[in-house]
Amino acid sequence: PFACELYAMVGSLFGVTSIWTMVFIALDRYNVIVKGLSAKPMTTKLALFQIFCIYLHGLFWTLAPMFGWSRYVPEANMTACGTDYLTLTWHSRSYIVVYASFAYFTPLLVIIYAYYFIVKAVASHEKSMREQA
């Protein structure tokens, strides 16, 4: 049913956009903390563009099941709907694999990368401050 599909699509959309918002926050912190004064400053125009891209990216991945690449189905207790991850066809599985790659694993790796260098920069700064004291 359409209401089920809409429910699942909106839930997925907000999940994906939340994750990618955290990615852009991590990248902004990386830009400010690691690059310091040499970093390109965040502007309102750039922030709005990033938000637009986040939602466009989220819409692409969450509308795909509405147009036939996999599908949204009622879940086990029939009180919620989600992506069909039980169907064993390649068509259905390919969506899950690609969706997981671009909606979850890529953001995870970008956040790990950014925070690795943030922690490294903070530790280096802390060490230099201790040496000066």
UniProtKB/TrEMBL annotation:
Membrane topology classification: Multi-pass membrane protein
GO molecular function: G protein-coupled receptor activity
Localisation per UniProt entry: Membrane
One example of a Gene Ontology biological process annotation: visual perception
GO cellular component terms attached to this protein's record: membrane
Superkingdom assignment: Eukaryota
Family: Belongs to the G-protein coupled receptor 1 family.
Descriptive protein name: Long-wavelength opsin
Species name: Hamamelistes sp. NZMC aphid 37937
